[in-house]
From TrEMBL:
This is Uncharacterized protein. It comes from the Bacteria. The keyword Signal applies. Residues 1-22 form the signal peptide. Keywords: Signal. It comes from Chromobacterium sphagni. The lineage of its organism: Bacteria, Pseudomonadati, Pseudomonadota, Betaproteobacteria, Neisseriales.
Length: 201
């Protein structure tokens, strides 16, 4: 794990003109953000992110671009961390070193969205604080959030449902709050329940 940079050193690095240093972000994993590290974003990756986001000409197309950017940032982070081992949900992770729960995912996605926002690449949205839902007492779940400025609408940006490297679920937060799961995940859960019932005595 790279050594931690003190806040003073981070400020000094940011103030250096034309230093050529790559951007960097913190990322956490191993459930409940129990492990944290730092990864760098190369100039080439930064140029790609900027180009992808600035092509967006509507709120909807910007959400598509944000989905691509979040996926790309995770893949960049996976070059220096074991998060590529993460599986959708929690039960399929097993003892994988890079496993992530929804706390990890919402924290990482919120950091990604904030980074994109601070770069000035978002024209139709702002990064918002993460949100949570608890439909049942033990069903607590978190997500990153993107705020549509013109519509005044919040959108859930949730990477927890699917295996590593797949794009996030991006749906209205009001829908997500009601217990939304992507169709593939819902289908797997239903199939598992039917199989269980079919094997019952």
């Amino acid at each position: 794990m790279p050594p931690r940079l003190t806040p003073l050193l981070l400020i000094l690095l940011c103030l250096l003109p034309g230093s050529g240093h790559a951007d960097g972000l913190n990322i956490c994993y191993h459930y409940r953000c129990s492990r944290q590290t730092y990864f760098e974003i190369s100039d080439e990756a930064r140029d790609w992110l900027a180009a992808r986001l600035t092509r967006a000409d509507s709120a909807a197309s910007e959400r598509d671009a944000v989905s691509d950017a979040v996926t790309a940032l995770y893949r960049i982070a996976a070059r220096e961390t074991p998060i590529w081992q993460d599986k959708g949900g929690n039960i399929h992770d097993g003892p994988a070193e890079g496993r992530m729960d929804c706390v990890d995912h919402s924290s990482n996605v919120s950091a990604f969205l904030s980074y994109l926002d601070k770069q000035g690449w978002l024209k139709f949205h702002h990064a918002a604080p993460p949100a949570w839902r608890a439909l049942w007492i033990l069903d607590l779940h978190y997500t990153g959030v993107l705020h549509d400025i013109a519509a005044g609408q919040d959108w859930a940006v949730d990477t927890w449902f699917k295996d590593f490297g797949e794009p996030p679920v991006v749906v209205p937060l009001s829908v997500w709050m009601k217990g939304y799961e992507p169709p593939a995940v819902s289908g797997l859960a239903a199939a598992a329940q039917q199989s269980k019932e079919g094997n019952s005595p």
